[in-house]
Amino acid sequence: xxxxxxxxxxxxxxxxxxxxxxxxxxxxxxxxxxxxxxxxxxxxxxxxxxxxxxxxxxxxxxxxxxxxxxxxxxxxxxxxxxxxxxxxxxxxxxxxxxxxxxxxxxxxxxxxxxxxxxxxxxxxxxxxxxxxxxxxxxxxxxxxxxxxxxxxxxxxxxxxxxxxxxxxxxxxxxxxxxxxxxxxxxxxxxxxxxxxxxxxxxxxxxxxxxxxxxxxxxxxxxxxxxxxxxxxxxxxxxxxxxxxxxxxxxxxxxxxxxxxxxxxxxxxxxxxxxxxxxxxxxxxxxxxxxxxxxxxxxxxxxxxx
Length: 305
Prior knowledge:
By secondary structure, the chain is α/β, with parallel strands linked by helices. It is built from 12 helices and 8 strands. It has one domain (6-230): Aldolase class I (TIM Barrel, Alpha-Beta Barrel). The chain is 47% helix and 10% strand. It is globular and about 50 Å long.
């Protein structure tokens, strides 16, 4: 059984100025993270444009991911879509390409209650033998996955773990406690770059930080300190990473996804890893002045001379 723990970055997608997939830049980013010691790769997550990608682009990204990773670490694939049948189609595509696990949100757009969400995850489980992570991201799907439901699905073997991007640290702490008391059936990963230290203190199994695209070494260093029980280093590393996360506050021309993932792509461009900071339509890439502001933050935290 594949172990999903440690630092598992959600990979951002490199694109040429014309919007086509930039395989060379994408490979540089992946190789850089794996060489830094990350413990897995999450393709087609929110940072990886999984909710926007056409089936052809999804296949392009997943095949490129598997070719570059080449079994060095496990690969999780996002299968984010509105309803069950569409998600299962994505699962079948991911299975054919050969990923190690999948990450699915609750169904969205046609919103339902908890019985429908539970049925959704059970049907996904029936459709695949791949491990399933429930992706808790209410800001995008407009429903919060409660700890009680997640524990029920975990204890029944329906899901393997949870990727928590809920922003609800109280709920996540309760989930960590409930999981431990139940014998740890779930692998619990935090998706919040700035409070990873708190998640580790509560007993999280790892992190899925988009910022690790920019500084994978910092997050691996923090994880190693956590495993060693060196809490002072965990805290100090988190403070430095929190300062780095301020790159997402630089943009003024856009907000939300454009500012967050746009800042990650722009930082990778400044660092010479990505050719371009192009974003998927209709999101605009960040402006030259914003690029310079991000470069200043990179200098302040020691990532750029």
